[in-house]
Task: structure prediction
Amino acid sequence: MNRNRRSKNRGAGKRVWDDRGSESVELAILLPVAMLVLAMLVVGARIALAGDRISGVAGIAAREASLARSAGAAELLATAAATEALTQRDLHCSDVLVLVDAAGFAGPPGAVGTVTVEVSCTVRFSDVGIEGLPGTRTLRDSATSPLDPARDVS
Result:
């Protein structure tokens, strides 16, 4: 009576299986993989944005250090400027390291000199990616600024 119904047994002991439900199985297998790839893309983008946020921080610190009157004051000003710039950019660093090369201050007043600042900031992946993600990333930036030629002429 039913013409659309076919026998599952054809020929000599061979079975023919329906494809019904195979799409569901494929989706159940591929969906977690696709979600993992998407999550990795989001984490990668967030890490790239965090790297972009630190860009220019050393330039700000180097400009502040170049206006100082002494090498000691340059280190203090550079550290304060870098810390403030990181805070303003909403970059939560667990370790901030500001290295100041203030060798240009050793020259006589009015002489051409430079100050170089290197800023390192260690961020946790859970801060820039997904909550609970383990690991850290160290972001770095460096810049050089000319010294103020009138720094000791006052």
In short: The two ends are 110 Å apart (CA to CA). Strands lie at 9-10, 14-15, 95-101, 114-124, 136-146. The helical segments are 22-54, 57-66, 71-88, 125-128. The mean pLDDT is 81.
